[in-house]
Amino acid sequence: MATPTFDHLPAAKRERILAAARTEFSHYSLAEAQVARIIKDAQISRGAFYKYFTDLKDAYQSVFQVAMTAVHAPVKHAVTAPDDLDQFVTAILHSPYAAFLRLYFTVDEGIIAVHPALTDLTPVAWAATVLAHETVRAILITPAAQKALIHRYATAIKHLKED
Fold this sequence. Notes:
Elements: H1 4-7, H2 11-27, H3 35-42, H4 46-52, H5 56-72, H6 82-93, H7 98-106, H8 123-141, H9 146-162
């Protein structure tokens, strides 16, 4: 995660640096990303980059945290209803984080795996949450299949609730 030095920067500069990192990680996997492109886009020195982040993985994790916070901000409760999930994923697809998240799910997830424990959920709520996240993941990877994937999710949830 970003250093305290980064956290104390003016908001506009933090946003500029994170936007440059998001752009880099939206076009290149973590393995292919380059500090040089980020610092050029962010208009900061290499030394400043390393004052703000320990390495590229640290910068990636910062962008990931911002992305997760941003895409989940409008959510006031667990998204399990198919229509709500459809709206949620549509919002993500139209967000500035869509390309970043698509590359995360197709390439970088194995390097930066983030899977919350979800231990406080009932078995049915846990299953619905896992299905919802997998549906979002599949839609981000293949946006053209959104309608079919939401339908499959709705069918699975219906059967889950019947048991």
